Amino acid sequence: MESYRYAARRLTQNQTLHIIRIFKPGERLIFKRNPRYWKKDEKGNQFPYREKLVAEFVPPGNSTASLLKFQKGEIESYSLHGIDMAALLPDAEQKGYDIWNKQKDNITHA
Questions:
Q1: Does residue 107 form part of some domain?
Q2: SS3 state at 15
Q3: CA-CA distance, 54 to 38, in Å (whole number)?
Q4: How confident is the prediction for the chain on average, in pLDDT?
Q5: CA angle at residue 33 from 29 to 36, to 5 degrees?
Q6: How far apart are CA 97 and CA 10, in angstroms?
């Protein structure tokens, strides 16, 4: 009979899309694709499609650094601040990104 610890680890490995590969506190977190993930799409291709995900940490209160990284294409998403709209709206169509505005229960696309 397999141990509880081994069974829990095996179960977790089969249920997560990505596995932590590298963790640098305060800097970045790199995930690799989980080859044991159970789910497949309708064509039989195993999820997840991406081989790697990178999460970079930006110190709180430093939204300028995040905005610059987003504008350079170094990060894929950015938590928009109202003051940033003037900088982001003109380039949205050319650079291929969408800006979403959520106010309580109403979500609109800019």
A1: no
A2: helix
A3: 22
A4: 75
A5: 130
A6: 38
